[in-house]
Amino acid sequence: MKTLAELQAIRDSMKDKVSLREGMSGMRVVVGMATCGIAAGARPVLSAFVEEVSNQGLGDKATVTQTGCIGICQYEPVVEIFEAGKEKVTYVKMTADKARRVVEEHIKNGKVVTEYTIGAAQN
C-alpha cells in the first residue's frame, strides 16, 4: 500500500493531465474512441495529444477529450478540432507522431496540417 505522501505526489503529477481533459478552453480536440477507433490505434493518439498539449504548456489554449463513434470508420483513428468562429477540422488516419505534429503546427501555431485532413485523404 502506498503512503499518503506517495498518493499525494501521484495526484499532483496527474492533475495537469486531468484538467486538460475536463477544461473549457477555446480549442477542443476530440478523439474518436469507439471500438473501431480503438482497434485502429486511437488510444496512443489520445495519449499523445494529452501529453504534448501538457508538455508544451497549451492547457489554457486547448482541451483534449474523447467521444464515441464519429461515423467515418474507414478513416480511423479520427480527430476533430473545434475552435470558436472557425470551421471544424477533421484529421484522419492519425498516429501518435501525427498527433504531436498537429499540436505543434495547428494548436500551437494555428496552421492546419492539411495533408492529414479528411479532404486530403479523399483525393
Topology:
Layout: H1 4-22, E1 27-32, H2 35-40, H3 42-55, E2 62-67, E3 79-83, E4 89-91, H4 96-108, H5 118-121
Parallel strand pairs: 1-2
Antiparallel strand pairs: 1-3, 3-4
Helix pairs in contact: 1-3, 3-4
Task: Sum this structure up briefly.
This protein is α+β, with helices and mostly antiparallel strands and about 120 residues long.
Subunit arrangement of the protein: single chain
Number of helices: 5
Structural class: alpha+beta
Task: Provide the succession of SSEs.
Answer: HEHHEEEHH
Q: Give the termini distance in whole angstroms.
A: 55 Å
Strand adjacency order, main sheet: 2-1-3-4
**Roughly what fraction of the amino acids lie in strands?**
15-25%
What is the approximate shape? globular
Mean pLDDT: 88
- What's the alpha carbon Rg, rounded to whole Å? 15 Å
**What is the number of strand segments?**
4
Summarize the amount of helix as a percent range: 40-55%
| Main sheet attributes: strand count, strand direction, barrel closure | 4 strands, mixed
Low-confidence regions: none
Question: What do you see in this structure?
Answer:
It contains 5 helices and 4 strands, in the order αβααβββαα. A 4-stranded mixed β-sheet has the order 2-1-3-4. α3 (42-55) crosses α4. 46% of the residues lie in helices and 16% in strands. A hairpin with a 5-residue loop joins β3 (79-83) and β4 (89-91). By secondary structure, the protein is of the alpha+beta class.
